[in-house]
Amino acid sequence: MNVILKKLTPFVKRGALFTKQFVHRKPCLMPKRWNGGQIDSYFFVDEERDLNNPDYSEISNEYLGTIAKGHRVLVIQPYIKWGKDKKKDTTRELQLAEAVALVQTLPYWTVVEKLWAPLLSLDRKQFFGKGTLTKIKSLLDSQCNITAVFISVNTLKHEQLLELQKIFKLPVYDRYSLVIHIFRSHAKSPEAKLQVALAELPYIYEKMSEINGQINLLEKRRLFLQSREGQLRNALQKLKTHRESVRTKRKKYGFATVAIVGYTNAGKTSLIKALTGDKKLTPKNYLFATLDTTAHQGVLPSTMKVLYIDTIGFIQDVPETLIEPFVATLEDAMVADIIVHVYDVSHPDCKAQIEHVRKTLKSLSDANKPTIEVANKCDLIEPGNLPKDALGISATETTGIDILRHEIERLILSETGRSIMKMRVESGSEAFAWLYKEATVISAEPDPKNLQFMLLNVIVTDDLLHRFRRFLKSL
Ligand SMILES: Nc1nc2c(ncn2[C@@H]2O[C@H](COP(=O)(O)OP(=O)(O)OP(=O)(O)O)[C@@H](O)[C@H]2O)c(=O)[nH]1
Ligand SMILES: [Mg+2]
């Protein structure tokens, strides 16, 4: 993933913010059922029709499988016993636990059985060795209520997928196809839906490229998919251009921004809820609950307003092409003034998750973006185990939230060249009106020595002070 992200860095840096306040709705262009997301945007009917194209559904059902109305699943976590492909920073138990959590994220999918399967290589036609295949088959025979098999590996080759489906007589999913189904069921905004639609294509292209024969059909399909990809990219570009204009407006209003990033399910949305008190936010206990980048207004201790940006969570072991379309939404994180990296301190795989997020963030931005590390879910660990190098909080119990707000404010002030300045101006004067219009006045009280004057606490930047002096000279 990091290689792809590096390639995309210049694109990411151009960045844009997509905030609720400043987007002009065009309700006449947006069918009602698109209107449920938290993030406002505009979307054209044509693009919706393209997304739900029946010709595409036929192709995607063939290669990605369908979500059906639920499945009872056998989860298999393959593991390489030795050699360079053996995973070092996690354990097979933790990998299997994450695979189970992925399946349980889909509505009406339940895990009936789970097992590890040793592998020597990922390239065998039947993927598993003979002994393992026999074991799986006898398990499927004895547990006849299993309706699908999930093999927790990045992607299976098309040949392997067909072979295993033939042997098991059941639909088989790999991590790519499963995560696509999760994305599809969680995507709410038009932008997220377009990104998911785009993320599906590399998987289908790859599968098609592995098929021999049927040249005419494959060529026809390839052309169709290429044209679909072009349409999706155009539609996304329209949204991006719009987001850029939104970002310009945000700059004009001078809000500082804080991106909340972290591993999926770490508690990012819960933290924003705690920081803003926004009751409409509904954190959910499943992976990839948030796919849309949304901005939420909060207030810091000095009464300075700030925008918190919620982002898609990171996850290990998914192919780069799956995440690539979502990198655009991380643009918002990269242009924020500071980053809050939140992790689930109670998770057994916490260390590997932290490292994965840090590595990904590093590849997204060259400069070292000022970052606050936050250890969430402290209510679930023993007080003696609190980390020393991060701020311990509980987003759901709102412990440590006030300290975090102070820390965010301190970092924003130092990183953005803002400072809080006390000013004495005549009440109702032009200077008084100018400050209220152009700057952020965080408190005001009459001067006890002369009640005609006010003492204002104002958030200023060098630029603002310069403009204020020029204004005073012009009076
Ligand atoms: N006990 C406890 N649970 C928490 C805390 N913070 C979040 N949770 C729970 O963790 C689950 C995930 O929370 P979210 O806020 O949705 O996590 P997220 O990082 O936004 O997840 P994605 O959007 O899926 O990447 C929810 O069930 C929350 O209630 C906490 O401090 N303590
Ligand atoms: Mg979330």
TrEMBL record:
The keyword Calcium does not apply. Keywords: GTP-binding, Magnesium, Metal-binding, Nucleotide-binding. It comes from the Eukaryota. One of its GO terms (molecular function) is metal ion binding. PROSITE patterns: G_HFLX (PS51705). Gene3D superfamilies: GTPase HflX, N-terminal domain, P-loop containing nucleotide triphosphate hydrolases. Residues 256-416 form the Hflx-type G domain. The keyword Nucleotide-binding applies. This is Hflx-type G domain-containing protein. It comes from Trichogramma kaykai.
